[in-house]
Amino acid sequence: MSIYLLRRAADRASTAALYGCMALSAAVLGLILAFLAYRGVGAISWEFISDHPRAGMTEGGIVTPIAGTVQLILVSMAFAFPVGVTTAVYFNEYSRGGALTKALRLAVRSLASVPSVVLGLFGLAFFCVFLRFGASLLSAGLTLGCLALPTLITASETALQNVPREFRDASYALGGTRWQTIYKVVLPSAFPGIITGGILCVGRVAGETAPIMFTGAVFFAPGFARSIFDSVMALPYHIYVLATAGTRIDKTEPLQYGTILVLLALVLGISMVGIVARARLRKRL
User: Fold this and answer.
1) Which residue of 42, 81, 154, 236 has the fewest CB atoms within a 10 Å radius of its CB?
2) Do 230 and 140 meet the contact criterion of CB atoms below 8 Å apart?
3) What top-level class would CATH report for the domain 46-284?
């Protein structure tokens, strides 16, 4: 009886500790959001959302950085999504665990541990200089795509592994080829999990500053990027510029926190769209 009581007490203590950690994490997040809202909500207005920056970033709005951030997300995911999913399909469906597969897995793990500033220097040397794309939306988007690849590959491979083996066997029994099985059975079943990886990547890509400040983000652009070879403004770099300008801090500080709130709202909005799409896919499946 004493052993039972000890185990029950240990279980209750562990449960309380887990709830405590969860409450602490939620409290820290709430504190951060409350601080940002207190400092930046006064700057939020329709003019702030819809107008272009002017007067050395001390007046106007942030519509140009918002559009640039969305463009960077689209370009980076257009590169990372097919490459990441294809790599995951190779790892899970085609590879036999040989030397090539081990080398590729090591490369993915190594890429995940590379600091973002190093990837920014790589993008500068490879995309901007070697491939002669220049400081552009394309160079910055491809650099961010490289940053997102490890997360997307890992999430996609996990989603593919969670598809029951019986699904594949049933497809083969009906005469389907390996590619038909992957394309029509495995990928649709794994797609909700793949979207989850994409959502995580969008959150990271949207908030990175170091990779884009070397490859395509600029202090000021007169308008939106009309070509993938144009430079762009982006919310993370705009925040960095406002925070380090050192002039008219009384006017730029509210703009800093207001821009942070808009960036958080943008990431949250894109994530919610992905979550809704994932939920609908799960219902269909």
Assistant:
1) 42
2) no
3) mainly alpha
